[in-house]
Amino acid sequence: MTDRTVRISKYLAKHLRHDPGAIGITLDAQGWVPIDELLDAAARDGFPITRDELSRAVSDNDKQRYAIAGDLIRASQGHSVAVDLGLPPVEPPAILYHGTAPRSLAAIKASGLLPMSRQYVHLSADRATAERVGARRGTPVMLVVASGEMHAGGHEFRVSANGVWLADAVPPEFLRFPG
Q1: Fewer CB near the terminus (10 Å): N or C of the chain?
Q2: Is 1 helix (H, G, I), strand (E, B) or coil?
Q3: pLDDT tens for each residue of 79-101
Q4: InterPro entries, per this entry (predicted)?
């Protein structure tokens, strides 16, 4: 990805996941916004984006963070604003993974994984993805989630269009800590 494409992706994340009102857009109940409305708002905000640049930022994103359907765009997951992505509950694999910073371990051991400012806790089906996500804040600590046991105990899971597993929370008894 070029530097410009990365900047566009970060701009999209901010406004499609966290703060649409900052540029004067409104997401519908499922998180969608018309592409033309987004592009007009970005231009008014002093960050003009062409349709080609937008298409590249969506298609080149290695995590497939955004989805386009016709003339609409939305973030695939990771919202801190309330949206209903329309993801049905599904049975998870027996084990999922979560990468986190070492400084978070004490709180996680006490309270489990919480969504914090987001709607859901994000989990990965493979360790490598969780390590990449966790490494954003230094050397990650890998947690194993006994998602099959959780699901059997009545907890729901969803999976986003880009393969991120979502849970309301993960209680500490379903976490396996290193060491």
Answers
A1: C
A2: coil
A3: 889 899 899 999 999 999 999 98
A4: Ptrans_KptA/Tpt1 (IPR002745), RNA_2'-PTrans_C (IPR042081), RNA_2'-PTrans_KptA (IPR022928), RNA_2'-PTrans_N (IPR042080)
